[in-house]
Amino acid sequence: MLVGSLVVSRVTSYTATWISLVMLLTMHLSLNYAAVRSVQMTSLNRQRANIVFSTLLGSDTDLNIADFTSAHQTHSAPKQSKATQPQAQWQIPTPAHVAKQERIFETDSALKWFSTQSTPHKLGFCRIGVSLEQFLAPSSTRTASGSLKTSTPMSRLSSLFRSEHYLLFLHRSRQTWDVRILLKTSSTTQSQLKAWMHALLTARVLCSSTETMQTQNDGGEIEYIVNTISETLRFLNEDSRADQYVSALTQAGWDMNVAALETRSGRRVCL
User: Fold this and answer.
1) Where are the alpha helices (DSSP H) in the chain?
2) What integer best gives the mean pLDDT of the chain?
3) Who's near 20: CB < 8 A, 6+ residues apart?
4) How many separate domains does the chain show?
5) Does the residue 240 lie in any domain?
6) By residue range, what is the domain housing residue 94?
7) Which residues of the chain are modeled with pLDDT < 50?
8) Reported pTM
9) What is the rounded distance in angstroms from the CA atom of residue 64 to the CA atom of residue 79?
10) Does the keyword Membrane apply (predicted)?
């Protein structure tokens, strides 16, 4: 503003006024952009969670996406894998590292897998803290009596997530996935982060199984999705792997106690 005041007092011609205006606006926007890019947040919102979790999971040599796919094809359980890799070998992004990858304007609720060797892979969208009706919406219809009829296997999900503070399910949306996360009343900040990590990993596995999924009928596809959810949850829970991830991220400078995944007041259910 001070520079603008100085310029205005010295510029008199019409052309010079417009040139000065454009130059000052460009300088103003450039400085604002540089200021925003220099910010390093230590909380995990949706975009930062995508970057951090996909980088961390991708560096864990105990994780082999092909194992989940081959397990479906052979109808066997995936290879059991305890957290044998030392944490020192994990690639743990710091807030400074993630700040360089963040986009100022990002698609809301986007679920992306980031890799150092390629551009981000769009997996779909994820909604966290939805109501029960929103959770069931993609696979439900209203009956004449006004009740909901759904193909989502709620009984199996309730059993699978009995010891967790959330439920999640995925619905195919063309070549990507629509993920819904239902939070229980016991949900905490760290359980929300685990839910997002679980959603990201499951969507990544399913996206790599596109050819297999195309051969499934509706019932077979739901079974495939539930099995994938179960197997990825088992992977995260083995040897408290998810807790180890959280501990490693905390040591790297991330504040894992700040809830930043929900952009508005979410719903909770008692199950």
Assistant:
1) 2-10, 14-37, 46-59, 65-74, 95-101, 132-136, 154-160, 189-207, 210-214, 218-237, 241-251
2) 86
3) 7, 8, 11
4) 1
5) yes
6) 43-68+90-260
7) 74
8) 0.85
9) 9
10) yes
